[in-house]
Amino acid sequence: MTTRSPGIPIGDTTVADVARLAGVSVATAAxxxxxxxSVSARSRELVSAAASxxxxxxxxxxxxxxxxxxxxxGVIVGDIENHFFLSALRGITDRLDAFGYDVLLxxxxxxxxxxxxxxxxxxxxxxxxLIVTPAQVSDRELISELIHQGLPVVLLDRRIRGLRADSVxxxxxxxxxxxxxxxxxxGHRRIALITGAGAEHREALHAEDPRELKTVRASTSGTRxxxxxxxxxxxxxxxxxDYISVAGFRREDACLATLELxxxxxxxxxxxxxxxxxxxxxxxxxxxxxxxxxxxCSLIGFDDAEWAExxxxxxxxxxxxxVQLGERAAERLVQRLNGExxxxxxxxxxxxxxxxxxxxxxxx
Amino acid sequence: MTTRSPGIPIGDTTVADVARLAGVSVATAAxxxxxxxSVSARSRELVSAAASxxxxxxxxxxxxxxxxxxxxxGVIVGDIENHFFLSALRGITDRLDAFGYDVLLxxxxxxxxxxxxxxxxxxxxxxxxLIVTPAQVSDRELISELIHQGLPVVLLDRRIRGLRADSVxxxxxxxxxxxxxxxxxxGHRRIALITGAGAEHREALHAEDPRELKTVRASTSGTRxxxxxxxxxxxxxxxxxDYISVAGFRREDACLATLELxxxxxxxxxxxxxxxxxxxxxxxxxxxxxxxxxxxCSLIGFDDAEWAExxxxxxxxxxxxxVQLGERAAERLVQRLNGExxxxxxxxxxxxxxxxxxxxxxxx
DNA sequence: TCTGGGTCTGATAACGTTCTCAACAGATCG
DNA sequence: CGATCTGTTGAGAACGTTATCAGACCCAGA
Lengths: 364, 364
Description:
The structure is a homodimer. The first copy, chain A, is an alpha/beta fold. Chain A contains 13 helices and twelve strands. In chain A, helix 1 (15-22) crosses helix 2 (26-34), helix 5 (83-98) packs parallel to helix 13 (322-337) and helix 8 (172-185) packs parallel to helix 10 (220-234). The longest helix of chain A is centred in the first third of the chain and has 16 residues, at 83-98. Chain A binds a DNA duplex through helix 2 and helix 4.
């Protein structure tokens, strides 16, 4: 109809401007726009006409100021380039979006000080809640304090020892056990495990006493290793520390680790890799060493990566329901955001074994 | 020393509280905390002592209210599960973090209405700037209006026809040409191209007149296809519409498309796939059809995925500097955020060919 | 002593919303 | 007819920060 009033800067029209044009009070305009309180049909019409005329856009900052809620959730991931977090993020954003929340994203890059900075920033921005994948060495103090202050926090994938917070992840021990059992049932006795844990955990992972595994923090690796040992024990197969390879996180690390394993006097006839990057490393090592998989050495990976069924051989994997993990984390957080009083829970989903062609009976 | 004063709710102490405890005015406390204006050493000490005693945390919402700046950048990605965006996101967050900006993330899932909703949300949250990967069908109107209002916007990977905004991406035409030339030089004449564009672009991509390609919106595919045709033309090889396969985005689509290509009366001796998911599909098709690569059919992919050198054969790819792309986008945005006046620019990085083993001379 | 120019300070006004409260009209009820 | 209720309205406070401005103080130079 008319062009926009030149006096008012587009994109920064306020409720007051709208009210003035509509010929009602600020309070009424706000009620009509914000859809609360009670407003007559006539006022509502007047206001919405004025609003669209002026191109009014509500200012969430001001709204947050008074409602003390930002409808924003902070998400801190450990390693943004890890496909696991990516899929989880997909689940998280989809669910949160559905509930009207936006996501403030930070990448801790597994570094303590970046995690701390991110945490601080989120608090200063007054996020309504937090989904955190704690870094390997995480700041229990700070997170714990936030929870204590009543900030809803959900831990994803990893947990922090001694921290009473909701957590969402898979049944790692079960998963470790299933993978190992699968290999045992096919006759394997010399089964190696390649983990992504840092070197500082080597001792605990190699210890004779499985209880040592509990000391491995952020312990998806430790817990999976514990399942592996349970399976071994149940089958009466002795534990060989040399078969647990603490590789580091990168593919190259796993490649080297695999080559070392293959050079052992009694090399393993099967290998379990604890994440998809490591699986790729093992595959690379097989190629380099000229080892045929599965004929000479079987392989089970974790995470059903997009390439898993396309490589040769197609890889048998423990598939984690990663998107669902993210969704569940988001849902749990929203429940708390809605003020539901809930006990602290550890939500656990099962990983499932997907049979492909990287496992065969041991040679000979 | 002392425990925290019980009267003041932890985590919501304000400048006023700090000022009271420090025995100075709100203004002085704010100056000391916010590090602006001039404050005596003594006041500064008093204030910071009081602040840490009370566990004061600045409230960015209130600060934004008055400074009219949120130090937040909105990032809208087209498909959060695409590895391309993931790596880009890594570059973006790292750079923005270094400049003190946080990232508000939204996933448009290539859907127009989700993109619009995300855009609206970002505006309402008063982000300082925007990095957008426009969806296939994007809302030029809205973005254009925002830019017009002075909101800094940088387009990533894709562009929007007719929109005057900074954009960052690779030299797609050059990349398409290089990949095709590489195959031509090895003697291939029947070279197929598998794109991820939607079916609605089939006509333009198949048209005899290469200028039709311009109509393919959000046109990384179109531009790469145009480079492909340039190379063909320069080598005097006739263009065969059947060799351009408009697959769809998923791996299965590419797999089917590849099988169709292989069933052509004169099947291609080499295939170029325009993203990594499609490459995986082609590989899958080779396996299903029992075609040996590269002996019977060569393959060049786009994007140096983590698995590219591990599959067999290791894939020759056009590698995009994806993290850098994200970094450049972030840097460009920060320049504008700092108020630098700049012409609209199209920042283009080169993709580089990584030779591996998926290309051989054509059979026979 | 007076003046000028710094440094430092505190009261108070923004910022754009939502919330609180009192007031008013009209309808309903006794 | 008065009392009570319901729906609607507007004035003004509130949120927690930064910006503005005027004043207090101190010291050097005239």
